[in-house]
Specification:
seven-stranded parallel β-sheet, 21 helices, alpha/beta
């Protein structure tokens, strides 16, 4: 959103300075709409921004209407817009040498009751301007759309087989991907020399293509590990890869594990760079089965759906080996130096998942370390499997310098079933923790029957919430006083993040904690209460 300065009516403004300010704002508006590639900035936002700008003054409106550089990024075909408006936006954009289009045909229920006007218009837009498009974003419910009008569906697919000389960014999202067969098209007739960014759901890649070798960013839905490995082998310039959705049951087959195990170290290293890689426990074991061949990366975000309870002893042993290879190959981390890395850990505990994140800032020689390992469970799976996976993480978590534990469900079960106890008891070196309402309740519950956790704790960061603020301050006081009673007080500082109440209430609640220095953020600065 554009935020213009608000001037007081009592302020005298130099007209010349105001004119320059208007020009600067207008220039910013033009350049942002013309060049912004932020995926979070939907075309709706661009249209809203230009509509508001055109109403500021006649001068702005006179400049906006003929500006094809603006209108080329405002072509949006969807049922919510009037046909006349869509035609007008397209007409104003046509003088531009390149165009961008967003086509949304996912509102399939409405097509049953309405005419064929919007789908036909979308096809005409693609057909008559295909070679000028540099950005194409299509959202569709393919199976239903094909059922309602097979001819229109086939005509859309035909467009994707044409050469695309100016295409840089292409996205096709089928919202019924898991109910339809993946499209196995010869995209762009193997001719899209400028294509760098592709999002395609669903998509099977059986062979290489010239445009695939040039991709730097790729989102797609694989249907097997072989599909993923093929892409990594062929897309030699790939810097970022995201997997949309999971691969289903097929990725857990034993032959898939053999495929991974036999893959070259170069490909394995590139595989580990995938953002949000989702693989089975067997594939994880195969991928990091050898310390010599295992990929060594600074950043890995891995999700492991535990489809069946981890009860087999051979699987236990192999997982422990693979987990060691996984951790001790990130940024040169070894068992002898992991305690020197000042790793900052966070643990997210949910009903059906546990996520472990370990991060460390880089120095001049190392990339930032960012390790994320997420285990997903069936809600009714065996408790033994969860405890085993948590215990397996203790060797690496014991070196943590800081911890942020938070819960997004199942707090009572984590307390009563003692799922995280082995992990937290191993983290004796933690000096800084981050608390919120849920983690504070957890610590207060588990410390009722044992001595306080984290014997070296010095600093507490607390994310204050406005709800039940009085109660949480009382719980926080109890948390701190237990450490005083155990002879291990938090003696350095306690930081509040954006407290919703006044400093006096904070001080009143915590002033009885001996030796405690209380800080909080005020207008971006850290100040004493």
């Amino acid at each position: 959103m554009l935020r213009c300065p608000v001037l007081s009516t009592a302020t005298t403004v130099n007209p010349d300075r105001m004119a320059y300010l208007n020009d600067d704002i207008f220039f910013y508006l033009f350049t942002t709409i013309a060049a912004n590639r932020d995926s979070d900035w939907h075309i709706r936002d661009r249209q809203d921004a230009i509509r508001c700008a055109s109403q500021v003054c006649q001068h702005w409106r006179d400049m906006i209407l003929p500006a094809c550089g603006i209108w080329r990024r405002l072509i949006w075909v969807n049922k919510g817009k009037g046909l006349d408006w869509m035609k007008l936006a397209l007409e104003r954009a046509k003088r531009s040498p390149v165009l961008s289009v967003t086509v949304e045909l996912q509102d399939w229920l409405s097509w049953v009751e309405t005419s064929n006007t919007i789908p036909s218009f979308a096809i005409d837009v693609l057909n008559h301007n295909w070679e000028k498009f540099e950005e194409v974003d299509i959202t569709i419910c393919a199976r239903t759309f094909a059922f309602l009008n097979t001819s229109n569906y086939n005509r859309i697919l035909d467009q994707l087989k044409r050469p695309a000389p100016n295409l840089r960014i292409f996205a096709l999202r089928d919202l019924e991907a898991w109910h339809s067969q993946p499209l196995t098209l010869d995209l762009f007739n193997n001719s899209a020399p400028l294509l760098r960014d592709l999002a395609y759901t669903p998509f099977r890649i059986h062979r290489s293509a010239s445009w695939l070798t040039q991709l730097t960013n790729l989102d797609f839905t694989p249907h097997s590990m072989r599909n993923v490995l093929n892409v990594i082998s062929w897309a030699l310039r790939l810097r970022w890869m995201g997997l949309i959705g999971c691969m289903g049951q097929q990725h857990a087959l034993l032959d898939e594990c053999a495929t991974v195990a036999s893959t070259s170290p170069t490909i394995l290293a590139r595989l580990a760079r995938i953002t949000d890689l989702s693989i089975s426990l067997d594939v994880f074991n195969a991928l990091w089965s050898s310390r010599i061949l295992s990929p060594a990366e600074a950043q890995s975000h891995i999700t492991v759906p535990v489809i069946q309870p981890v009860t087999d002893q051979n699987q236990h042993s192999q997982f422990l080996i693979s987990l060691s290879n996984f951790f001790y190959h990130h940024s040169g981390i070894t068992s002898s130096n992991i305690h020197e890395r000042n790793l900052q850990w966070s643990v997210e505990a949910a009903w059906a998942s546990i996520t472990f994140v370990a991060k460390a800032h880089s120095d001049n020689t190392l990339k930032p370390t960012d390790i994320q390992l997420r285990f997903e469970f069936d809600v009714d799976d065996s408790l033994t499997g969860r405890r085993f996976l948590v215990r397996a993480m203790t060797e690496y978590a014991r070196s943590a310098a800081s911890l942020h534990l938070f819960f997004v469900g199942g707090l009572e079960d984590y307390v009563s079933l003692e799922i995280l106890d082995s992990l937290l008891l191993s983290m004796e070196g933690v000096e800084t923790i981050t608390l919120d309402g849920t983690s504070l309740r957890y610590y207060n519950a588990v410390e009722k029957s044992r001595s306080p956790l984290f014997p070296n704790l010095k600093v507490v960061h607390y994310n204050a919430r406005s709800t039940r603020y009085k109660d949480t301050l009382c719980h926080l006081q109890n948390f701190l006083m237990r450490r005083v009673g155990a002879g291990r007080p938090v003696v350095q500082t306690i930081h509040f993040s954006n407290p919703k109440d006044d400093a006096n209430r904070i001080y009143s609640a915590l002033k009885g904690v001996p030796g405690l220095r209380i800080l909080y953020r005020k207008h971006g600065d850290v100040v004493d209460v």
